[in-house]
């Protein structure tokens, strides 16, 4: 491709650009930037204007370019310019472009020669340019003027290095022809980054600029200069602005060559991703009734599958952010609902008060000798009724999650708004219809528990089974004499009838069983030397409690353990030494009543544990049967029929505007990708390297090394030259042959140069 020149490259790149512009995308070939580097008044602006073919840059003495100018050249059918800071405004008069650059520079830097690294972005659209980016950088200076800081040279140097050290940057070093290349600051900076050769060009002089000499005439004068000058005519074909453009074009084509494989792979991946969707849309007829019927069936089936997967679980499209669907319902069943049941547990003091009232009201004026079972049933029923609230709340939470699941599944129907809305309405209405039935059934479960208190349940301790364990744990018997081994720890088991202790918690070797009749509890003051907290059990009839001991001293590690054991003993009917009198309104609780209260309290706990276990088991089953499974069956079997009966099914399948846009976008993108790949297929990726020009011939000068003649003056003097081997100033020795930013001159005219960096290789052109 490259050997056909820039006139062949532009149409191909434009074709790619047009293919992507049709779908609102950019053809991202990542073309390199060209940074123009040079001293003050070295001719950088002239080089840029030669590329554009227009006079549009500010002129003057000193630092004229005081902010980086990022110049984007964009191939277009018409010619205009626009600034990033003036979006929407087109400049067709390039004198106005110059004025805007000056005004924008002064706005940021002031009018007194200050500089700023903030770039000015300018786009120039023209049929005569290639899509590339050039950067005009401030001229290198050493002496600050005006408001410039003392370190102005270092600031400009750092600014320049920020641009030219980028891998995708091509360096255009500009040096006046009447200066010694050995002292060129532009070449010094460039060689730090990329030490390769240069190309000479002749720019317009200040006199030419003031005389409004156009670019075309300047290029003709440049050509005449190289053909007529004795030092350059033997390599005139390798000098000049056209040659510089050609070399840069070679660099660009090589860059395109390097970029195309990855770019082609990216396009092929995008095309493959769109193939299936584009095939579905191809030949698509939005108003075809048969298509709408078929698509309605497919959408409903997909909705049913998605709902089932979200409820039952699926390995595909797993949500890693939060629980949803079946997982959240499972959490409601086995975490939230049990937690709500636990929250319903009443206050202990309130429970004891209610039990005491129930017992006294049942006995009436008489003093009862036995614990009434009617008090037990009354308290149990009151506790069972409290279960209705958490059960109904559980149903509400499951219903809400089902509705959320329906909405999540309907997201795939968003391309058909009416179908989505109608599907959500129908399924949600069905869920609400089932809500009342589910709640009625749940409340029925509670009523069933209330209808019969089954005191013969195998897990119920019952009145006749008061030997059931109230508490187990380790205690230390503290009052065993040292002669008998001293204090020793045992495993204690407390029931409603006795207190037993064993050698260990395996309960195989029982050491003693102490009946609870006539026993009471009192505190024992903690000794100074002991870290244990002690309480003791004694017989109210002054009998020995344990062998020869009138008391049984028991020790715990913490006071909380002591209080807990005393509370458990109280439930077993073993009261503190001083009678507890609990005043509740006009009632006082005597020890006999307290024992009855503790008995019923123990029975209520036992029976409610049975009820809670039953409800916790039946609730998920009831909701699953009446709600979840029923909704799944409804979606699978009846949703389609409901949609047909809801109205015009053709209207249901009217696609949204977004879906129509999506279909058009997919088809256009798919076609653009195919066209782009076809264009890339026409581009050959083979290249060849164009040799650098030979050294300047100085034999025409004649004489000895100490007395050289100056070269003849060019037609319009003084001239400037950029990026190349320059003619020496009058009376000066010819410049030495040394390397520069694009590759060193060789003594052999046609030998190619070895690259120093991948992005800065010698110019080469695909064949």
UniProtKB/TrEMBL annotation:
Subcellular localization: Cytoplasm
Residues annotated as domain GED: 597-688
Domain of life: Eukaryota
Pfam families given in the database record: Dynamin_M, GED, PH
Compositionally skewed regions (Pro residues) per UniProt: 730-742
EC number per UniProt: 3.6.5.5
Residue spans of biased composition, Low complexity class: 708-729
Name under which the protein is recorded: Interferon-induced GTP-binding protein Mx
Biological classification of the source: Eukaryota, Metazoa, Chordata, Craniata, Vertebrata
